[in-house]
Amino acid sequence: MTCLTKRDFFEPMTSFFDGFGWMQKVGDEFDKILNGKCDFEEEENKYLINLEVPGVKKEEINIGLKDETLTISWSRKVEKNQESKNSRYERRDGSFTRSFSVKGADFEKIDAQLKNGVLTIEIPKLETIKAKKIEIK
After folding, report:
1. Given a cut of 60, is residue 137 above it in pLDDT?
2. Does residue 100 sit within a domain?
3. What is the DSSP letter of 130?
4. Does residue 55 belong to any structural domain of this protein?
5. Domain count across the chain
6. 3-state class of 12 per DSSP?
7. For position 43, which CATH number holds?
8. Which residues are within 8 A (CB) of 70 and not within 5 positions of it... i.e. 6 or more apart?
9. What's the chain's average pLDDT?
10. Residue 77 has pLDDT above 70, yes or no
11. Quick check: is 50 in a domain?
12. What pTM does this model have?
């Protein structure tokens, strides 16, 4: 009688890829970074921010100011049907935070609007006192 050992032909490849589980975590982090594409413009008299926030309600968005830094954050919980047998969920629960330096901004006149999944924030700059030459009489 001979003892036979059954071998999986693909086992060496399977065990090789087991060590790459960390790549999923990296992919998750990149997804968080990419899930808030932003345009930031500084003009002579204002800052303008356009931030993509698809599927996020205005009630879920927080905009805060501290020490000339504007911080935008939100979190989202995706509802999933637990009773469904065949499900695939590509949208994820998650949170997002992004900060911007807005030196010399007039914080009393900030305007924020959410339209078609894009958050637009306009931040006027304080009027600067221009240098003036004083004539001696």
Report:
1. yes
2. yes
3. P
4. yes
5. 1
6. helix
7. 2.60.40.790
8. 49, 63, 64, 99, 100, 102, 105, 121, 123
9. 78
10. yes
11. yes
12. 0.64
